[in-house]
Specification:
Strand order of the largest sheet: 1-3-4-7
Number of strands: 9
Distance between the termini: 21 Å
Order of helices and strands: HHHHHHEEEEEEEHEEHHHH
Largest sheet: 4 strands, mixed
Strand content: 5-15%
Structural class: alpha+beta
Shape: globular
Number of helices: 11
Length: about 325
């Protein structure tokens, strides 16, 4: 299996990285956490213009078709720059609407999602969804089917300031009497894993820069062997997660995606712990930009299936296939 990105895919990631690096995303995140959406919406439109949301929308609705590898490339950059908003939820909603037996709702929503004119959120296995106050399409998936929510409750803060929670009312229009979940869950977990990988790399890069500047006993602390070991362990975890992520993007098998999700999220969480330890007390402060990535690593770890659930999904798939190596 080939895990290397081709030149076009690498150029796509580089272009997103360059665009987002110039966008001052920490300021956009802080505005977003206060309910001020202007910067975040402008950033959302630029991400959509780059074609990110179209990667999960069929060509008939203005997208580019199902392209999970490119989606993973894009979401790694979104995580690297801590872009706010219901990013994964919009992708999962696009897949759910695409898979509905009745194409009516898809025709009305998917072109706007692909272009960035609309934003979707989704409550799945919980009554709460991200950013229901700013999303233009609010979906609720229950055991009875997929519903279009007519409204939302008050905004509640979460651990990650870029992930604001709202309670959705499931009593709206029934779009499908039977939930279509497997493919949407795979896309949501893939995008979450890619985000986590980007978050982990951002934390590692910022920590490496910090230990090169901070001195103790007259020398940079990055020269200490113990510090080097912690950074090497964080880098190793992220590098092991990368081929699992892109391998899962190639197969889109639920077990492969679950394995990539747990591995990438655990690697990002380990990088966050290393970053916090090596930054010292400054890493705890909300005013310091590092905190935006620290809290995101923790939030992504349990989003769309915590580590135990993802591991159980992998082991269950292996047991069904008769693979006794697990």
């Amino acid at each position: 299996m080939r895990f290397l990105l081709d030149p076009e895919q690498r150029a796509f990631g580089d272009s997103l990285n360059g665009m987002l690096a110039a966008a001052d995303t920490p300021s956009a995140v802080r505005d977003w956490s206060r309910g001020e959406h202007a910067r975040g919406r402008a950033l959302w439109c630029r991400v959509a213009e780059a074609g990110v949301f179209g990667l999960a929308v069929p060509e008939t609705y203005g997208g580019m078709g199902s392209r999970p590898v490119e989606l993973a490339v894009a979401f790694a950059e979104l995580g690297r720059h801590a872009v706010p908003g219901p990013l994964v939820e919009t992708v999962a909603s696009a897949v759910l609407l695409t898979d509905l037996p009745d194409p009516g709702p898809a025709k009305g929503v998917l072109p706007a999602l692909a272009s960035g004119e609309a934003m979707a959120t989704l409550a799945w296995s919980t009554p709460y969804a991200l950013d229901g106050d700013v999303a233009t399409t609010r979906l609720v998936l229950t055991s009875q089917g997929l519903h279009l929510s007519p409204g939302h409750g008050p905004v509640r803060p979460s651990l990650d300031p870029a992930r604001r929670l709202t309670r959705l009312d499931p009593g709206g229009e029934l779009l499908s009497p039977a939930p279509v979940t497997a493919r949407a869950l795979a896309y949501a977990r893939l995008a979450t894993a890619a985000q986590a990988l980007g978050v982990g790399h951002a934390l590692l890069d910022r920590t490496v820069a910090h230990v090169r500047q901070r001195t103790q006993f007259g020398v940079p602390i990055g020269s200490f062997q113990a510090v080097k070991h912690r950074l090497a362990d964080a880098r190793t975890g992220l590098e092991f997660a990368r081929p699992l992520l892109f391998g899962a993007a190639l197969t889109m098998a639920p077990a492969d995606v679950a394995a990539a999700k747990v591995t990438a999220c655990e690697a990002a969480y380990a990088a966050a712990r290393t970053a916090l330890q090596l930054h010292g007390a400054i890493g705890y402060t909300a005013e310091y930009d590092l905190s935006l990535w620290l809290t995101k690593a923790r939030a992504l770890r349990t989003a769309w299936g915590d580590p135990d659930l993802c591991r159980a999904d992998v082991l269950g798939a292996r047991a069904l296939s008769g693979d006794r190596r697990w």
